[in-house]
Each structure stands twice: as C-alpha cells, then as structure tokens.
C-alpha cells in the first residue's frame, strides 16, 4: 500500500458523509436510518481510506469490515455504558449503543457491494 491522494474517492467519501449526517439528523426511526445507514457507513470508511491509500482493495475492505464488526461487538459489551458516556450524544452516535445482527449483515453487504464495484472497475487492484 502506498500513500496517494485520490480525488474520486475523496468526493465519494464527502458525499457519503453528507448523506450519513442527513440521515442522522432527519430520520429518527426507519429502515434507512437503522439498516441502510449501516450499509453506507462501511462504504464511507472504505472510501475515506481509499482517498489516501492505494493498494489491495480486498484487504482494505476486509479490514474495514473487521473494524465495523469490532465496533458492533463493543456495543454488545455495552462499552459506552462501561465508560459512563451514555449521556454523550456524540460518543453514542459514533459508537452506537445497541447490538444488532442486522447491522452485521448490513456491514457485510456494504463491503460486498463495494468490492463488487471495485472488481468491475478496478480489477488489478482488488485481489
């Protein structure tokens, strides 16, 4: 992996970040907020790293997926409560506070969709 700025991924990341903020602000309870937002967040994280790092897309996608799983399992362990930060809106929004297997599925599908697109458009960098 090498450091190299990629404007396309940076723009995608900015658009996804804006979308995630709008979802968080305006959709309090819906499929889009609870499932599609999780689908998008792994794509957002992947795009952020691809904005600065050129390398194997599969390894990066797998790393992002593992990171998302770790955060989700920290929710199961009630990390926010253990840290006594359940009243901190930013931390609760960032880390979440409710474990869901549906979130794990959304993360997995998000990375699978991302890697499928990467393979379609950037075959040499995927595997």
Automatic annotation (TrEMBL):
Where does the chain cross the membrane? Answer: 9-26, 32-49, 61-84, 104-121
Q: Tell me, what's a Pfam family for it?
A: DUF2809
List, alphabetically, the InterPro entries matched: DUF2809
Q: Which domain of life is it from?
A: Bacteria
Which keywords does UniProt give here?
A: Membrane, Transmembrane, Transmembrane helix
| Organism annotation | Mariniflexile ostreae
Q: Does the record bear Kinase in its keywords?
A: no
Name of the protein: DUF2809 domain-containing protein
Is Transmembrane a UniProt keyword of this protein? yes
């Amino acid at each position: 992996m090498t450091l190299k700025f990629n404007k396309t991924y940076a723009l995608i990341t900015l658009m996804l970040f804006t979308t995630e903020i709008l979802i968080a602000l305006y959709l309090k309870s819906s499929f889009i907020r609870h499932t599609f937002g999780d689908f998008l967040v792994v794509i957002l994280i992947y795009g952020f790293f691809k904005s600065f790092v050129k390398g194997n897309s599969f390894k990066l996608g797998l790393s992002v997926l593992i990171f998302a799983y770790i955060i989700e399992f920290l929710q199961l362990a009630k990390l926010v409560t253990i840290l006594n930060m359940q009243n901190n809106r930013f931390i609760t929004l960032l880390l979440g506070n409710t474990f869901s297997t549906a979130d794990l599925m959304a993360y997995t599908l998000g990375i699978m969709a991302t890697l499928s697109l990467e393979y379609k458009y950037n075959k040499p960098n995927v595997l």
